[in-house]
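Database export, one record per block. Field names are fixed; values are copied verbatim from the stored entry.
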Amino acid sequence: MAGLIRLSSDSLPVLLFLLLSASSPLLSHSEIQLGGEEQEHFVFLDRNSSIDGFDPTRITQLSWRPRAFLYEGFLSHEECDHIIEIAKNKLEKSMVVDDDTGKAVMSDVRTSSGMFLEKKQDEIVARIERRIALWTFLPEENGESIHVLRYKRGQKYESHFDYFVDKVNREIGGNRYATVLMYLSDVQKGGETVFPNAEGKHHHEEDDSWSECARNGYAVKPKKGDALLFFSLRHDATADAASLHGSCPVIEGEKWSATKWIHVRPFELPRRRGGCVDEDLKCPQWAAAGECQKNPLYMVGSESSLGFCRRSCKVCSS
């Protein structure tokens, strides 16, 4: 039988102790409440469930400003290869969010290509999503779909924040609270994740194996199976400027990664009205620009969720 444990936001080490002492716990969570001094986390421990491969002994704390942690071997090599296999034929040019409008736009700041998986797309993806919830102590339902990225030689993502400053992208789920960045491949040189404003930016070893870009802050090398967790917001839900980060250009090889962004509230797109309709006035324009093929989950939808622009994509009849 699951028991309810109430912890303050500064009591997560206690929760970790409980997790380690439980024979086979599984965590499920209610909504995380942020923004006031009386913050609480509500966590259920079920000792009769499997732990989905979660092993807290592999976690290393990297920094407190920002709060950043490295989990060595978070994914198996088989899990990494599985995600790449799903994504490799569905990649599109990566976009960035315009701070003023909240719209996705193309930019030279980000030169990778990527795609979104569906939540619980298959049992392997579902298991990884459960493992992320176990590690972060954040509800599964607060997460976006996993975003898979490929960086070829010379491709990069310049320093940026994961939290939003526009109101549009905070309407569903509130702001992004935490990021789990999973490395799906090794990179011969370059491709590091760098935090230019991190408190310990000059504390890690630097040798010839690091790129010049990585020397501009605290950097983490991509290693197949490892995962990086960092928080974009502080406990009081204010933005943490130390969470500024970027992906250094790949110098040798190719970099694959998968990102899970986690919000302060459940992140679920509004339910579609049903029928053969468009949910946005710009759907005809987007369809004419090829977005039905480039962004099918949003435009058309899936078996479990209707898209926003079904009529303009001509996948239904009115």
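Remark 1: The chain has three domains: 3-45, 56-263, 274-318.
Remark 2: The longest helix spans residues 123-136.
End of record.
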